[in-house]
């Protein structure tokens, strides 16, 4: 049995692959891209530094790993989510009011960012006029109490359980937000909601410990 480094195992856990695929991707990326400063022996500390400081390198490695595992759609999804989180998507018109969130939350910056990331992952957003659901989908809400700045709450779309792949199932929402660099709480909250915290405000407390 191969003894993979903690960093390789951690990245494998983040993207839901066997460490063998990640180790292969690290070797390929290190030979191919001069800027990818990762090795198969990276420690957990090295991984966390890369995960927060050089997401581009990790996105390349994760993409190669997914392709090595035969999951080309998920490989592209990881890159799309990375680009959305990094603001590197080609110019897109802002979503219309009532898409992905209630009209009154449309201008909330963290809500807008979360909607952009989840939409990039192929998840269908709700369309609503604030009273009627015009089209079913996920819904993002801010913390309107002011107690937990940076946190948003996500209600999965009705068809989430039937989807497969990296973003499949209800937990796919957490996988996508975690890959985008947000802190998440792995348990469902009351109201069937998930909670995620913007990367810039992950130091803000919540009545649970966010998974990194």
Written overview of the protein:
The protein has 212 residues and is α+β, with helices and mostly antiparallel strands. It is 39% helix and 12% strand. It is built from seven helices and six strands. Strands 3-4-6-5 form a four-stranded antiparallel beta sheet, with helices on one face. A hairpin with a 4-residue loop joins strand 1 (127-128) and strand 2 (133-135). Helix 1 (6-15) packs across helix 2 and helix 1 packs across helix 3 (44-53). The longest helix has 14 residues, at 19-32. Residues 207-212 have low confidence and may be disordered.
Label this structure with key terms.
four-stranded antiparallel sheet; 6 strands; 212 residues; alpha+beta; two-stranded antiparallel sheet
């Amino acid at each position: 049995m191969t003894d993979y480094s903690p960093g390789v195992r951690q990245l494998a856990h983040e993207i839901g692959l066997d460490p063998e695929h990640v180790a292969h991707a690290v070797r390929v990326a290190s030979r191919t891209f001069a800027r990818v400063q990762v090795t198969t022996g990276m420690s957990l500390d090295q991984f966390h530094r890369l995960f927060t400081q050089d997401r581009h390198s990790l996105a390349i490695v994760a993409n190669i790993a997914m392709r090595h595992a035969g999951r080309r759609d998920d490989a592209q999804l990881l890159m799309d989510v990375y680009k959305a989180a990094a603001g590197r998507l080609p110019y897109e018109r802002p979503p219309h009011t009532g898409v992905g969130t209630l009209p009154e939350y449309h201008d909330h910056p963290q809500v807008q960012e979360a909607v952009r990331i989840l939409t990039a992952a192929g998840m269908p957003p709700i369309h609503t006029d604030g009273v009627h659901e015009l089209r079913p989908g996920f819904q993002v809400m801010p913390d309107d109490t002011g107690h937990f700045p940076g946190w948003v709450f996500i209600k999965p779309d009705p068809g989430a359980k039937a989807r497969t792949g990296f973003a499949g199932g209800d937990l796919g929402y957490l996988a996508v937000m975690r890959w985008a660099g947000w802190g998440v709480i792995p348990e469902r909250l009351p109201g069937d909601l998930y909670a995620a915290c913007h990367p810039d405000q992950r130091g803000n407390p919540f009545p649970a410990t966010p998974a990194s």
